[in-house]
Write a structure and sequence with these properties.
With 953 residues, this protein is α+β, with helices and mostly antiparallel strands. It has seven domains: 298 residues, no CATH class; 160 residues, Galactose-binding domain-like (Jelly Rolls, Sandwich), CATH 2.60.120; 111 residues, Immunoglobulin-like, CATH 2.60.40; 103 residues, Immunoglobulin-like, CATH 2.60.40; 49 residues, no CATH class; 105 residues, Immunoglobulins (Immunoglobulin-like); 80 residues, Immunoglobulins (Immunoglobulin-like). 15% of the residues lie in helices and 44% in strands.
């Protein structure tokens, strides 16, 4: 048959209309926090009054309790049931017929729809009406993340007419979706509906295997059951065009309806009413013959029987509160009576079941755990043609170390000759003792046998076999475990807030307690943001602990990136697991390179105080140094004021991103008025950090002097004479005694100096003997030589570099020179830096001037310093040989590193990263200013893409 059509424009409008009314129908969703296997029950999907309850998304909510109703529900509506209780099922059938009609409304959208328009909706198809699909949900409202790991099992009952049971081509499709905003399909499976030729109702287990889903709070699980009918020969016969028979049938139909309408029987009247409504509905929707064929096939396909105490359609979900696969295990029965985790892949085996137990054993457990839940899926083949004996009962027992934990009894229905029933039974062990501990080195076993009193007897009439150990029949035992609380852990950290600076360490102390004697291993389970930025050290990694004892373990989380980039990384989050024989626990540790760990510190260098004359200004230079920890830069605001409210200018007024250990200079200029009678003032210099708001203050207390020199001199000598006590001897003449003595002393000194200088034949002078230059400049020193004598003088000039001779050279004018009497000449000396100069280099040059016939030469010391020297490195001309390569080939990468700066760069390091991991490096390269270095780096190619990164440090 052609598939039931999906809605488009009008269906989307219908969907949006329905969604707008969801809050009116929504009731409290299923809000449990399940642990282990949880069984949910489907409720009446055609509940016209809405008593089934809806979740917050508008889906009918699954029930956690089995139905107690004595009335079966059917989907699609079962025709016999409709006719047997027309008045009771009329509303449900009308609702289902509405779903059917809505599924055809896309025909009204026209023929211009793309063929793949439904793909645009993805999982949203479950939100559209479908007369063959039930959609119900479980909305998780817990607080912790849940995990589904294992098989999701549907237990379903179907009712079918004789044609379906004979043809046996109808299928059922079960699906699982998750939904928080939009539906997302997890998995689905199709299977042929198992039907008995002689029985209308059949039971069937359908499994969606190996589901692995993480379920966050607020997320819904959506389960669908969809019938996929085959083409029915009955509908083809009924709807085949036969003009003559059609005319006769129409006349006969009118006669029958007229006759029946005269009846007073309420059931007949209900049937006529239903017939009229059906005809009206088909006329209103203008169904074609093919539409009626689809509708008939849907109506006469097997129906799901559910939502009653006798027929419970359910789905069993293996929940777990941990993503640890060790706590959700599925064992398969094998031919060696072992329960193994490897999925069977070969031919299946069979074994007869008798009153003697067949037992399958798990491996011993590596550590103690709590048994939360258990279930078994068994493929059972049986026949029971003997009506004189009680029904066979199958006992399935869960054993631990040969002792029964719990058991379940399954009653097997009789079969009608010559049929043999073979189907999967899903058995949930519901009576597991609370906190049932499975100690390490123990084992579980699954025992299968006939229950007490059951007998096989003659194998011609009764038989019971287990199918297992093969790809087709995978009988299994599933258990859900949780960890014991024998081992616990608490931790403390230094620093407590776990915030550190680059290259620092957070040290955790783990305090491990154990209720039992045990050997414990401590190891990293998982981490986030670790690679390339952190080292994790656990000490010790294993220990022995006594019963009710405590031990400590130290875990160090060290930042390995000593740069400001470390602050841009996300915090390290590492989960440490403590694993013993008797228990297991984890703890989460964290460390972060953060500004919060920075200690802010600022140093201020204060200039010396100086006298300032009235009517003038003076500039004081303050040096501010960033002394923060952790490489953290600082930004500042600079202000200054005068105690006497003099005008004060600050330049610059702010500085941004001053690096650690770097210094900036701030000029503070004070303007002293002329007409004041103030002898001193205080300047207050304030530095404010933009980063944390800290304020630092420095003050300068300076003296203000008069602009009149004579007054200042007299005041000075008067004060000095008083200090020396001269006023007691000379009275008012004391201020004049000191100047007189000074004049006499100066006169004597001048006489001596004239005598000394008159004896010198040649004098040498240089106005500036110390200079700062840029790396690409040269320092020029003009030296003036003066012949004071009355004779010609021959002068030799020489020079020697005292320091850094390999980095500087000197050049000066010709030598010797001849000077006439009283003649002077200027000789220029040039000090030139080389290409290998480095920042902050300096040189001292001694200039020797030797006069002929003079014993003692004259010397001058010249000094040159380099300022603002920088290096500027770049990578160029990168190439690889060979250009094409395979895994494990040796490849050479060639490149040129150029220094565009003005100074030589030493200790250059080049690192090569392949796919984010460091593979090779070249170190200690020296590149002169405006020079370059040719580098070749070998490396081994990896499989797949090789993403190459080169870093110059």
């Amino acid at each position: 048959m052609r598939p039931i059509k999906k809605p488009f424009i009008l269906t989307v409008i219908f969907l949006l209309f329905c969604i707008s009314f969801i809050p009116m129908f929504a009731v409290n969703p299923v809000g449990a926090s399940p642990s282990g296997e949880e069984t949910f029950y489907f409720k009446n999907f055609l509940d016209f009054e809405g008593s089934s309850g809806y979740d917050s998304l508008g889906f009918i909510s699954l029930s956690e309790q089995p139905s107690t109703s004595t009335n079966n529900s059917y989907y699609p509506p079962y025709p016999i049931d409709i006719l047997s209780d027309i008045s009771g099922n009329q509303e449900e059938f009308a609702l289902w017929f509405g779903y059917l009609a809505l599924s055809y409304m896309d025909e009204l959208a026209g023929d211009d729809l793309p063929d793949d328009w439904m793909d645009m909706f993805g999982g949203m198809e479950i939100m559209f009406p479908n007369p063959l699909r039930i959609v119900e949900s479980y909305e998780y409202q817990g607080n912790e993340t849940l995990y589904i790991d294992g098989d999701v099992v549907f237990n379903l009952d179907f009712i079918s007419n004789i044609e379906s049971r004979i043809e046996n081509e109808d299928q059922v499709k079960v699906s699982i979706y998750t939904m928080s905003y939009l539906p997302e399909l997890i998995d689905s499976t199709n299977t042929t509906i198992s039907q008995s030729t002689l029985s209308k109702i059949s039971s069937q287990t359908v499994s969606i295997e190996d589901i692995n889903v993480t379920l966050n709070p607020g997320t819904s699980l959506i389960f669908t059951i969809e019938m996929i009918p085959s083409n029915k020969s009955k509908t083809e016969i009924l709807l085949k065009e036969r003009p003559l028979l059609s005319s006769i049938s129409s006349t006969f139909k009118d006669l029958v309806l007229n006759f029946l309408s005269q009846s007073s029987n309420s059931e007949i009247q209900n049937f006529i009413q239903f017939y009229d409504e059906f005809i009206n509905l088909t006329s209103e929707y203008n169904f074609s013959k093919s539409d009626l064929t689809d509708a008939a096939n849907a109506l006469f396909c097997p129906s799901l029987v559910y939502d009653s105490k006798d027929h419970q359609a359910s789905v069993t979900v293996p929940f777990s509160s941990s993503s640890n696969n060790d706590n959700s295990i599925r064992y398969y029965l094998d031919e060696n009576n072992n329960l193994i985790e490897d999925t069977p892949s070969g031919e299946y085996k069979t074994i007869p079941i008798s009153d003697t137990a067949n037992s399958w054993n798990t491996p011993t457990f590596s550590r103690s755990k709590i048994l939360e839940s258990a279930s078994a899926t068994l493929y059972i083949s049986h026949k029971d043609y003997n009506p004189f004996k009680s029904k066979m009962e199958l006992k399935v027992s869960l054993m631990y170390n040969s002792n029964e934990v719990t058991h379940e009894i399954i009653t097997l229905e009789r079969t009608i000759p010559p049929s043999i029933s073979l189907k999967a039974f899903h058995i949930s062990f519901n009576d597991i003792p609370q906190d049932k501990e499975l100690t390490y080195d123990g084992e579980l076993s699954l025992d299968i046998q006939l229950a007490n009193g059951s007998q096989i007897g003659n194998s011609i009439f009764r038989s019971l076999d287990l199918f297992y150990g093969g790809l087709e029949y995978k009988s299994s035992l599933s258990i859900s475990l949780s960890e014991t609380d024998h081992i616990s852990v608490a931790h403390t950290s230094i620093p407590e807030n776990t915030l550190i600076l680059p290259n620092e360490t957070v040290v955790y102390t783990l305090n491990i307690s154990s209720e039992e004697q045990d050997d414990i291993t401590i190891q990293k389970k998982d981490s986030e943001n670790e690679d390339g930025f952190w080292d994790i050290i656990i000490n010790p990694e294993s220990l022995s602990i006594g019963s009710n004892d405590k031990k400590t373990v130290e875990v160090s989380l060290t930042s390995t990136k000593y740069s400001l980039d470390a602050y841009d990384q996300d915090p390290l989050i590492v989960e440490i697991e403590i694993l013993g024989n008797t228990g297991y626990t984890t703890t989460v540790l964290q460390a972060e390179v953060s500004e919060g760990a920075v200690t802010y510190s600022t140093l201020i260098s204060t200039p010396q105080k100086q006298e300032i004359q009235q009517g003038t200004n003076h500039t004081y230079t303050f040096n501010v140094t960033n002394n923060n920890t952790g490489l953290w830069p600082n930004s500042f605001i600079f202000t200054a004021n005068s105690d006497n409210n003099f005008t004060v200018e600050v330049n610059p007024m702010y500085f941004n991103n001053l690096g650690v250990d770097n210094t900036t200079s701030i000029d503070v200029t004070v303007y002293v008025p002329n007409d004041i009678d103030i002898k001193s003032d205080i300047i207050t210099f304030k530095v404010t950090s933009k980063e944390n708001g800290d304020e630092l203050f420095e003050t300068i207390n300076y003296t203000i002097v008069s602009p009149y020199i004579s007054s200042n001199i007299f005041d000075f000598f008067e004060s000095l004479s008083k200090d020396l006590g001269l006023d007691e001897s000379f009275g008012d003449f004391a201020p004049f005694i000191i100047p007189i003595l000074l004049i006499i002393t100066i006169f004597i000194i001048l006489i001596i100096m004239v005598f000394i200088f008159s004896s010198r034949v040649v004098s040498v002078s240089c106005s500036n003997r110390k200079k700062e230059i840029l790396p690409d400049e040269s320092a020029t020193y003009p030296i003036t030589i003066n012949n004071r004598s009355s004779n010609n003088q021959t002068i030799d000039i020489d020079a020697y570099i005292l320091t850094n001779g390999d980095k500087f050279s000197i050049r000066f004018d010709e030598s010797p020179i001849v000077l006439n009497p009283k003649e002077s000449k200027t000789v220029e000396f040039h000090i030139i830096p080389s290409d290998i100069i480095e920042p902050d280099d300096s040189v001292q040059v001694e200039v020797i001037i030797n006069t002929l016939h003079q014993k003692k030469p004259k010397t001058l010391l010249l000094e040159t310093m380099i300022k603002n020297g920088v290096s500027d490195l770049s990578i160029q001309d990168v190439s690889h040989w060979p250009s094409s390569f395979r895994q494990n080939d040796k490849v050479f990468t060639s490149l040129r590193v150029s220094n565009h700066g003005s100074t030589q760069t030493k200790h250059v390091k080049i690192k090569m990263f392949i796919n984010g991991k460091e593979k090779n490096k070249v170190e200690d390269i020296i590149i002169p200013a405006r020079g370059y270095a040719e580098i070749q780096i070998p490396w081994i190619a990896e499989k797949g893409k090789n993403d190459i990164s080169l870093v110059v440090i």
